[in-house]
Design goal:
Blueprint (H helix, E strand, L loop, with lengths): L1 H35 L2 H11 L4 H24 L7 H39 L2 H7 L4 H39 L4 H11 L2 H27 L5 H30 L1
Length: 255
Amino acid sequence: MTRLGKFIDGPVSAMQRIGAVTLFLGQILAQVPAALRRPGFIVAQVHNAGGRSLIIIMLSGLFVGMVLGLQGFDLLQRFGSEDALGVAAALGLLKELGPVVTALLFAGRAGTALTSEIGLMRATDQLTAMQMMAVDPVRRVVAPRFLGGFIAVPLLTAVFNVVGVFGAQLIGVSLMGVDSGSFWSQMQSAVEVDDVMEGVIKSVVFGAACSLVAVYEGYHAAPTAEGVGLATTRTVVTSSVLILFLDYILTAAFL
């Protein structure tokens, strides 16, 4: 009976956690209209979550694109299709690597910052003080940060894709000798609107998921230094696993 209880306790706890996150998302969405009436807060959070992540996103996009150029050229050369390098790089970035890598980097940089910031407010009783003054902390603190991350991830994904294609072109055309006209013309003819929309939808979903996990863990962190540290760790782990899981679900749905 003890083993059976431990076996059942795990799924039950997981379901309770999913339910708590869902209810918390409902509270955030209910406060979104009020948060939108203060656009300055949201712009500040977009800058905090997205603007400060721009350098690492651009560097990562450049190197991922350069690796795609090297590996793609090596693979396509075996079939005599080096001119299709632009197609391979663009589709790989738009549909898969761009949204996934951007979301993982966002979770590691901006997601942890959001969690630690809100967790510190919890540890120093700032959120409790807001409640005592009849100020809803979800509306004042959580909703603008959620919207900031939600808006920032698709924008960062677009930057990642552009820089990644440039990196692939830099290696393929300048270093490997692929014809520049073939690189761009085949890319333009092969990439369709559906391919772009798949990447956009993935980035929007990943942005919502990463932001929700970050603000939830920060808001419900234990009011101690150890509690904030554990919440930050959970943010990275949960966001990373959730991104990969959602990526599979969305890819299967589009196919």
